[in-house]
């Protein structure tokens, strides 16, 4: 309609003829149809044009809420305009740098409690308690600086209902574990020839004391069905650990013994022992354990072995045979004890994979005992070596690729300083030689007339015996290229 209503206008003389009102209306509609079509065409062209840089809006300003990409895709585009099936996002990005995490594992030798040590601890204690802390005071910083520390516990804790005793049947006061734990040790090895000195009762009670003192342990069981191995998580790296002892029967299987003592029926299932005539049983069990540990994600395997001839500074053929088999079966590091003296070390090569190497320390010697060149009535071959011990620290790396390896090995030679103290009893102090020889008095070596000279002698014995094995091993390590260590 127009402004005249419904009445048709009349044309008269002198008047301009009026235009039909439908024509402007059609023109108006046509213009708007044209405009809408233009808008549609423009939008279509825009949608088919190259995308704006990701992270910017049309005005070129940053817009973190917008990711520009191909329609219906995953929010990213291939800058070359082609799909990249090797990239989940479709973008070409710089690979993440390889990172790693580390853990240090310290292993020490035999902790033996002879009566002379118990007498000193009794005199040092109070209120009927025994105090062994003096023994570990000089190595506490070294031990506790490791992420995880292990030592061989070569005595039993049968309680005070059984007389405390030293060789040949060891039974020590529980307080020795206070000193051991206080020094920074985390795990006790209990597969050794003295673990059965106070029979099954002592074997079980010792394990209970480990637990009460918050110490891990392997080598013995509270139940025959318990696992014969341990996996410890150190800084996110899983270390698998085995601990076995030669029963010292020489391969005799007619009646199972340990250290010459008959094992009562059923008791052997509580101990991790092996027999030289039954090595296939050992290897089969190790195979099963390693497979199980790997299924649980273990990164590195250490076998702690109690073996060899006492007071021999070179390993024997049986140690070599078992060590080579462990290498072939997949053990990464072997650390031995029992001879009460240090023995040589070597790098073994797997007979099934020439690229696989296993570092083997045949014996770390004594960490502490009453065995010394100054001990009365103690006359054995290589007696001066009984004062010598070795602490081995493994640095283990696990890379973000999943690869794990020993990236460095360090050794700390120790000297067991036995001397008569002011209370008339014999003190037994473990001295870290690499530190003490630079400052003898700070490590108590002036407490006896022979302390410093014996310490220097022991240091030479140890370094000569170890040779360059560790240096050669360290120099052979090839580390992957990495970025910064993972935090």
Give a quick precis of the structure.
This protein has helices spanning 22-47, 115-124, 133-136, 140-145, 176-182, 199-212, 279-295, 317-329, 433-436, 451-466, 469-476; strands at 100-111, 148-153, 187-189, 216-218, 229-234, 237-246, 257-258, 261-262, 273-274, 300-306, 333-337, 345-349, 357-361, 366-368, 388-399, 404-420, 426-432. With 487 residues, the protein is α/β, with parallel strands linked by helices. Strands 1, 2, 3, 4, 14, 15, 16 and 17 form an 8-stranded mixed β-sheet that branches. Strands 5, 6, 9, 10, 11, 12 and 13 form a 7-stranded mixed β-sheet that branches. A two-stranded antiparallel ribbon has the order 7-8.
Explain this structure to me?
This protein is α/β, with parallel strands linked by helices and 487 residues long. It has one domain (100-476): Metallo-dependent phosphatases (Purple Acid Phosphatase, chain A, domain 2, 4-Layer Sandwich). It has helices at residues 22-47, 115-124, 133-136, 140-145, 176-182, 199-212, 279-295, 317-329, 433-436, 451-466, 469-476, and strands at residues 100-111, 148-153, 187-189, 216-218, 229-234, 237-246, 257-258, 261-262, 273-274, 300-306, 333-337, 345-349, 357-361, 366-368, 388-399, 404-420, 426-432. Strands 1, 2, 3, 4, 14, 15, 16 and 17 form an 8-stranded mixed sheet that branches. Strands 5, 6, 9, 10, 11, 12 and 13 form a 7-stranded mixed sheet that branches. It starts with 21 loop residues before the first helix and ends in an 11-residue tail after the last helix. Mean pLDDT is 86; it is low at 1-21 and 45-89.
């Amino acid at each position: 309609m127009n402004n005249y209503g419904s009445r048709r206008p009349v044309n008269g003389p002198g008047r301009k003829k009026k235009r039909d009102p439908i024509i402007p209306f059609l023109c108006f509609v046509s213009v708007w149809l044209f405009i809408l079509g233009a808008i549609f065409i423009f939008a279509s062209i825009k949608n088919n044009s190259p995308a704006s840089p990701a992270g910017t809006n049309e005005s070129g300003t940053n817009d973190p809420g917008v990711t520009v990409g191909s329609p219906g895709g995953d929010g990213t585009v291939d800058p070359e305009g082609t799909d990249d099936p090797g990239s989940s996002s479709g973008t070409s990005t710089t690979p993440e740098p390889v990172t790693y995490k580390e853990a240090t594992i310290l292993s020490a030798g035999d902790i033996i409690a002879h009566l002379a040590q118990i007498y000193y601890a009794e005199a040092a204690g109070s209120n009927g308690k025994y105090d062994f802390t003096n023994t570990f005071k000089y190595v506490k910083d070294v031990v506790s600086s490791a992420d995880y520390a292990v030592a061989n516990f070569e005595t039993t804790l049968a309680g005070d209902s059984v007389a405390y005793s030293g060789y040949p049947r060891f039974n020590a006061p529980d307080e020795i574990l206070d000193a051991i734990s206080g020094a920074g040790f985390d795990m006790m090895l209990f597969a050794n020839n003295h673990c059965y000195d106070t029979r099954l009762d002592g074997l079980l009670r010792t394990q209970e004391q480990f637990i009460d003192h918050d110490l891990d342990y392997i080598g013995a069981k509270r139940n025959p069905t318990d696992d014969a191995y341990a996996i410890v998580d150190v800084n996110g790296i899983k270390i698998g650990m085995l601990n076995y002892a030669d029963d010292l029967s020489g391969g005799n299987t007619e009646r199972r013994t340990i250290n010459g003592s008959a094992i009562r029926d059923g008791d052997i299932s509580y101990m991790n022992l092996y027999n030289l005539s039954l090595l296939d049983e050992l290897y089969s069990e190790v195979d099963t354990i390693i497979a199980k540990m790997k299924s649980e994600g273990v990164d590195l395997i250490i076998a702690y072995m109690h073996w060899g001839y006492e007071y021999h500074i070179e390993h024997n053929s049986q140690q070599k045979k078992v060590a080579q088999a462990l290498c072939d079966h997949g053990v990464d590091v072997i650390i031995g004890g029992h001879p009460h003296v240090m023995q040589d070390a070597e790098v073994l090569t797997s007979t099934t994979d020439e690229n696989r190497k296993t570092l083997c320390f045949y014996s770390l010697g004594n960490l502490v005992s009453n065995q010394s060149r100054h001990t009365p009535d103690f006359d054995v071959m290589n007696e001066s070596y009984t004062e010598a011990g070795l602490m081995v620290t493994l640095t283990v790396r696990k890379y973000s690729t999943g690869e794990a390896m020993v990236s460095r090995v360090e050794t700390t030679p120790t000297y067991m300083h036995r001397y008569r103290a002011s209370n008339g009893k014999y003190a037994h102090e473990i001295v870290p030689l690499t530190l003490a020889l630079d400052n003898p008095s700070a490590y108590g070596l002036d407490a006896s007339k022979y302390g410093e000279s014996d310490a220097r002698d022991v240091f030479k014995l140890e370094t000569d015996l170890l040779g360059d094995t560790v240096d050669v091993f360290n120099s052979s390590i090839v580390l992957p290229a990495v970025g910064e260590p993972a935090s």
